[in-house]
Amino acid sequence: MIHSRRTRAFAQNTSQRHRQGKTGPGEDPIPTLRFGVNYTPRRGWFHSWHDFDPAHAREDLAQIAGLGLDHVRIFHLWPLLQPNRTLIRRTAVDQLVHLVDLAGEAGLDVLVDGVQGHLSSFDFYPEWTRSWHHRNVFTDPEAITAQAELMRTLGAALADRPNLIGLQLGNELNNLVEHNPVTVAEVDHYLDTLLAAAREHLPPDRLVTHSAYDAAWYGDDHPFTPEASARKGDLTTVHPWVFSGDCARRYGPRSPQVLHLAEYGTELAKAYATGPARPVWVQETGAPEPHIPAADAPEFARATVRNAAECAGLWGVTWWCSHDVDRSLADYPELEYTLGLFDSSGRPKPIAEAFAEAIAEPHTVQLRDTALVLDCTPGTRSVSGPGGAYFEEWMRLRAEGLRPAVVLAERAADEGYLAARGIKEVVRLP
Hints:
This is Cellulase family glycosylhydrolase. By secondary structure, the protein is of the alpha/beta class.
């Protein structure tokens, strides 16, 4: 049943009950398991920032809180925040702070993404990075300095907001590499610089993160690496999408490969971390049509939450997205119009009720004392993605009832590391 709007304190207490077990041997327990949604404004999509209406945002946020969720992830647009390399618009920053406050009134905590960047198949660049003024946003020193200043400004503006989870550099910034060629070393410098800037004004208990789409994990020689995702920032974010590698079409929308994809993405991310205690956040997952037919979407949501919640060290699950894109807006890929928990009129869809029911269940971390060894190079990373030999063997074991952990080949003989993760046996691909 869909819940009425609740206060933040009630959200925290309810979330506390979701975690029934410890995170695993050698790890500190995570006090809450968080469930939220990526906020897509119902009226005007993210173009609504051009004429921000607090009343409309308040209505959307009340609907979200009514599902029993405890947080939202929100996105302003980079060109509106920083239309000139040396100009950050105070009005735009104030709008963002206002939205964070409105979320707090609804009982919702907030993660703020800074550099947008990429959203729902559209890329948003300030004019000072384009055409006659083209700058590579990842490598141009002045462009990096400008983005760092934007993150620093957002951190200063939001530092005292009690419902702020933290700052993220931007949404799936690795989508921008096609038009901004970059090396692994240059990506590392870019991320390190912006993460430090985002951290500068925030209290130590707030998160600083970054995100990447699945090519970071599955793409051969992609310059955003699994190591960067799993070792930079305060936790690891994963965006396990069923269309990556054509997963849902390859295996079917009800297949184990689809229903356990978020669980798999969480376990894969844990393997690349330097230590066993680093949390993982399933920060984007959703049920895009036609990959997941509408009739299958509720069960997909239930299974995704249940299976991911069995993973030790899971921070939470944040659904993409809150509201469908209105079909009056043109030129989106078809799947982007159907991803919401609410339709474009604000009515909850069957998937909304399924998601609300799934997050209200008790969730218990399950033992993973057997690990499947992942042996790949940057140039063969695709073995771990849909269609790859490693992915298929992990899923075969999972379908047989085993819950395999993932361990990198270079750690497979490290007894201390394996013991810290509770792994007693390692197995390799046939």
